[in-house]
Amino acid sequence: MEKQLTKLNIFSFKGVQMRTFHITWLMFFVCFFGWFGLAPLMPTIRAELHLSKGQVGNTIIASVAATIIARLIIGKLCDTWGPRKTAVRLLIIGSLPVFLVGLAHDYTSFLLFRLAIGVIGSSFVITQFHTSMMFAPNIKGTANAVTGGWGNLGGGVTNMVMPLIFAAIVGAGFTKAEAWRYAMIVPGVMMLIIAFVYWKFTKDTPNGNYDEVGYAKTNPSKTDWSILTDWRVWALTMAYAMCFGMEITFDNVASLHFVDTFHLSQSSAGFWAGIFGFMNIFARALGGIVSDKVGGKFGMRGKGLLLAGVLLLEGMGLILFAQSGSLTMAIISMLSFALFLKMSNGATYGIVPFINSKNVGMVSGIVGAGGNLGGMLFGFLFKSEHITYVQAFTYIGITVMVVSAIVLITRFQKQAEPQTADEPALALGA
After folding, report:
1. Which residue from 42, 62, 190, 215 puts its CA 20 to 30 A from 134's CA?
2. Cα(237)–Cα(119) distance, integer angstroms
3. Could you give the C-alpha distances from 121 to 151, 152, 248, in angstroms and in order?
4. Domain limits of the chain?
5. 16-208+226-409, superfamily in CATH?
6. What is the pTM of this model?
7. Which pLDDT tens digit goes with each residue over 177-199?
């Protein structure tokens, strides 16, 4: 009989748990690669489609807005269909607008395609849900943070890679207007490949798929709406709006900010924007690891204090970034707030699985949707003709610090559930 793992052997592919662990973060990575694939190419797209600052802002808002609703639905579908079927269907359906966005030839059609592509951002909920099914309580925070961080990495890698794909297509003799369109075929193909891999090599639970183990019968799918009255859920939702919401906003605007403020080329701006995302390879995992360690010693209260602390440091770093007068200072401050932002992501989901063990999918979906809601609201600041990017970053930094205070006074208590006595561990071998 398979069971939840109590240790995370990140270089192992043995067993359904570790196989699912690696495939689910890779699915998340590919979806984020497609979701943000257009962001580093926006300087070219903006010029070709003659987009104003407000219109660019609207496309950013659209790309995030669709994910808010999608994450709520996906969380429920994970509870009922199971994460495996949910992931495969999302990948297949979500690949369509990724493939077809190249047909956009004006502002309106481009806006609608970005809205449709935004649905694949809900892949995050599947990854967090599926990881929670595979690992025991003592290591859930770490496992969720690693899969979350490595999946989020897609948003950074695409900032680096898509300009290179674009340049290669231009080098092959195509125009810039054709190149950005053809470049989006790459993430579409990647999504279809991962859909096959997910279906072939993962299971819903350590013991098998939902229909094999009778999960739906033993876990009724009736929604427990009482979770909406739980203040802790909303505190975590606000926290995630401040960290992940800022992350997807920065992924969307970073290239434009570096081009417009520091006069970098599209490829150079994409590189530095990619460095921000690349920190997910360790920073989000670090937040989850520390959350598990703190939780082992100080319980849920310790996890809450950690989240409040890293949010405060994120807000301070954002304000420093906003006031940077040189590229060097901007990069240094970007790396500092990126570290605490991504740790906040991990620390948030170090708490989420313990809020309501019978509705992990719903809680994960609500908190995840909060991240996108934050990103959408921040998008209005970057859309405004009356607020500069510098002012927008400053306002967001202040807001993050206010939310850290709210998290500080929230009492996080763990719902009673079986707990293993093992010490949280991150094993780096097979």
Report:
1. 190
2. 19
3. 11, 10, 10
4. 16-208+226-409
5. MFS general substrate transporter like domains (1.20.1250.20)
6. 0.82
7. 999 999 999 999 999 999 999 99
